[in-house]
């Protein structure tokens, strides 16, 4: 048990006092009396003896100079915390800095222990998680899955009384699994409910949270300033919208209508039916046809008008059309092919890297706030923000996709001004892709047909049930899943020598919700990355097989929903590598679009691009545990491993003569397409 892993004890049961036992009663943190809060200090000796007698492991906490926590004044310990609120973001940045400044793990443990019972629980958890991921001496500590710490942000609160009853009354070995009902937020009279399996998927929402954990928008410069961070903000969210639209077509729904007019009623209502466990208040709902209003919140100092959003958007549009942005000194920064999208990402979000916050504002973040406070913009009714105000819950709301569709449109405006790729940028002399296809892993199954179905899985929520039972308390939930399959690509290398290439595999819908074929100009926006990998091509014909679970986009189920606690870390090398919770990545179970019972056709696209133009000069560890979902998340402490623009080769417009995918592919021998079908089977299969 390393000292660094002791930090995991601080992350369990976020709202319980630190002196209560962790790890099912087996671990106790020995607090100095000075670290107890005012409520518990007078009875400190009694508490320590009462709760620590049965402990197998005691974690000593040494005395340190207590830090000044005034930066968090006004953020209630049991209130709501949001990374979109400037005051909260500033407090998180200060706390991350405090944790990063500590000279060693023991001091960090002491300072964090002191902070834990005095600060907002989500603020503490987020800041400690970011610090642990970015410190050299703690970066191998596995951050727990957030669904096990704050289950209230992911599941129907109706299950919590059942979980507590089961855990309190029934012995560990006899406990039953409590089922979380799917689609509990609306009836099928609401068309948007057809997409609830996507929007309310636990893994999808955890991905969004973990991405913002790896790429915080504010904090110490060393934490925020990562390679191509702004471009990754564009690309990850752009792929979310493309995936969502692809599944909408499967459900016979129109593409997302971008929220470009801030003055018209928002037709979509959303009633989340979720409760914040910290204060037992519900996440407020939004009725249909409500208008955006100016926000002036005296509780947290958030002030933003609808006019601000329009002004910032128009200034960003103007900068794109002019081809440059202005920094605070009035200097022009060109929005060129290399850095333009990265600079725009920092401006639109806006992270602390924005070159001019005064001029371009904080469009993305403040837009989230204006929508999140639509029910109580001036704190008249003492209501907290809705689900759009929190990165763990925002993707549940249909308006998230309309807002981010508008944000994506801003980036696309810049992309459409760039010169189309030429033959030299797209081609790869001497390399011919002769075929591409998919094959299910089961024997005797037809080629180019993928299967999807419902799967019932389990997650242990005990670590998030504050003041609840010891031991495991499992809940089951239903999610989309696909049958395992492989991509099979045949590539001929007639250059006469072995050479490397980058295999890029994408899919896109052939038709919209009515079955009308998409033009290439439309289809280009719906291409979804399935896998990118470096391949070695021997002279002659090469057959490349990539399993679906090797995708560069996804992380396996075991990482999305993993066990928690200082004792839950495996020791065997293989198991440890599988367990390492880098946690950033699209969930494996959502890799394939849902399809339909009769089958939905997609274009499968593969290309092998020129490795000389793709490669990034850097030392890579082939056994590094975090490198498997680099498409959305980059590489830890490294440059993004692909020199091409994110979204290549579909991120730029094409010449007017290219009207179909075939027009795009035919001139390039290193590209090939095939038609595949995705069939959905409406049955529920339990995870083995």
UniProtKB/TrEMBL annotation:
Domain of life: Eukaryota
Cited InterPro entries: Di-copper_centre_dom_sf, Hemocyanin/hexamerin, Hemocyanin/hexamerin_mid_dom, Hemocyanin_C, Hemocyanin_C_sf, Hemocyanin_N, Hemocyanin_N_sf, Ig_E-set
Cofactor(s) recorded in Swiss-Prot or TrEMBL: Cu(2+)
One example of a Gene Ontology biological process annotation: melanin metabolic process
Keyword ATP-binding: no
Keyword ATP-binding attributed: no
Chief place where the protein resides: secreted
Domain (Tyrosinase copper-binding) ranges: 397-408
UniProt GO molecular function: catechol oxidase activity; metal ion binding; tyrosinase activity
Protein name: Tyrosinase copper-binding domain-containing protein
């Amino acid at each position: 048990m390393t000292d660094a892993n002791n930090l995991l004890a601080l992350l369990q049961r976020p709202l319980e006092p630190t002196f209560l036992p962790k790890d099912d009663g087996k671990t106790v943190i020995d607090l100095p009396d000075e670290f107890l809060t005012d409520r518990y200090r007078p009875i400190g000796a009694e508490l320590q003896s009462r709760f620590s007698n049965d402990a197998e492991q005691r974690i000593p906490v040494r005395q340190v100079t207590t830090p000044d926590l005034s930066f968090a004044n006004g953020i209630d310990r049991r209130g709501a915390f949001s990374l979109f609120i400037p005051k909260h973001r500033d407090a998180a940045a200060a706390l991350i800095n405090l944790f990063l400044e500590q000279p060693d793990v023991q001091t960090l443990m002491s300072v964090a222990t002191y902070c834990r019972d005095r600060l907002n629980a989500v603020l503490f958890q987020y800041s400690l998680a970011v610090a642990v991921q970015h410190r050299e001496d703690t970066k191998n500590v596995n951050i727990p899955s957030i669904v096990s710490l704050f289950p209230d942000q992911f599941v129907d609160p109706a299950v919590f009384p059942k979980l507590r009853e089961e855990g309190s009354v029934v012995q560990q070995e006899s406990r039953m699994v409590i089922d979380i009902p799917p689609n509990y937020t609306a009836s099928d009279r609401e068309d948007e409910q057809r997409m609830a399996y996507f929007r309310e998927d636990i893994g999808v929402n955890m991905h969004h949270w973990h991405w913002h954990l790896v790429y915080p928008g504010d904090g110490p410069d060393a934490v925020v300033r990562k390679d191509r961070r702004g471009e990754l903000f564009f690309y990850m969210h752009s792929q979310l919208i493309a995936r969502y639209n692809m599944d909408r077509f499967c459900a016979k729904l129109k593409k997302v209508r971008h929220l470009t007019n801030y003055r018209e009623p928002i037709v979509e209502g959303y009633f989340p039916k979720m409760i914040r466990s910290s204060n037992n208040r519900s996440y407020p709902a939004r009725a249909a046809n409500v208008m955006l209003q100016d926000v002036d919140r005296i509780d947290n100092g958030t002030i933003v008008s609808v006019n601000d959003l329009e002004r910032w958007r128009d200034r960003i549009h103007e900068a794109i059309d002019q081809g440059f942005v202005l920094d605070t000194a009035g200097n022009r920064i060109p929005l060129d092919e290399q850095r333009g999208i990265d600079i725009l990402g920092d401006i639109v979000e806006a992270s602390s890297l924005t070159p001019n916050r005064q001029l371009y504002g904080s469009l993305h973040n403040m837009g989230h706030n204006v929508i999140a406070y639509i029910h109580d913009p001036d704190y008249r009714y003492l209501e907290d923000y809705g689900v759009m105000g929190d990165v763990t819950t925002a993707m549940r709301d249909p308006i998230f996709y309309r807002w981010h569709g508008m944000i994506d449109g801003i980036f696309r405006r810049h992309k459409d001004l760039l010169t189309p790729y030429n033959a030299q940028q797209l081609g790869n002399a001497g390399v011919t892709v002769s075929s591409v296809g998919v094959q299910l892993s089961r024997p005797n199954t037809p080629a180019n047909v993928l299967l999807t179905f419902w799967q019932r899985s389990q997650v242990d929520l005990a670590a998030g049930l504050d003041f609840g039972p010891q031991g495991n308390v499992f809940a089951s939930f239903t999610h989309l899943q696909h049958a395992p399959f492989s991509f099979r690509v045949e590539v001929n290398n007639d250059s006469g020598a072995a050479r490397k290439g980058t295999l890029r595999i994408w899919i896109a819908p052939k038709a919209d919700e009515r079955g009308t074929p998409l033009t290439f100009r439309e289809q280009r926006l719906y291409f979804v990355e399935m896998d990118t990998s470096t391949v070695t091509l021997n002279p002659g014909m090469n057959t490349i097989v990539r399993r679906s679970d090797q995708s560069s986009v996804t992380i396996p189920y075991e990482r999305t929903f993993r066990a928690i606690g200082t004792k839950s870390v495996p020791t065997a090398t293989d198991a440890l590598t599988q367990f390492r919770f880098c946690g950033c990545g699209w969930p494996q179970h959502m890799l394939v679009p849902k399809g339909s019972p009769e089958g939905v056709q997609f274009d499968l696209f593969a290309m092998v691009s020129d490795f000389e133009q793709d490669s990034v000069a850097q030392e890579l560890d082939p056994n590094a545990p975090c490198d498997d979902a680099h498409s959305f998340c980059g590489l830890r402490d490294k440059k993004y491993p692909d020199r091409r623009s994110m979204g290549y080769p579909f991120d730029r417009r094409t010449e007017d003569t290219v009207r179909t995918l075939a027009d795009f592919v035919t001139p390039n021998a290193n590209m090939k397409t095939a038609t595949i079908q995705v069939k959905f089977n409406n049955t529920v299969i339990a995870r083995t």
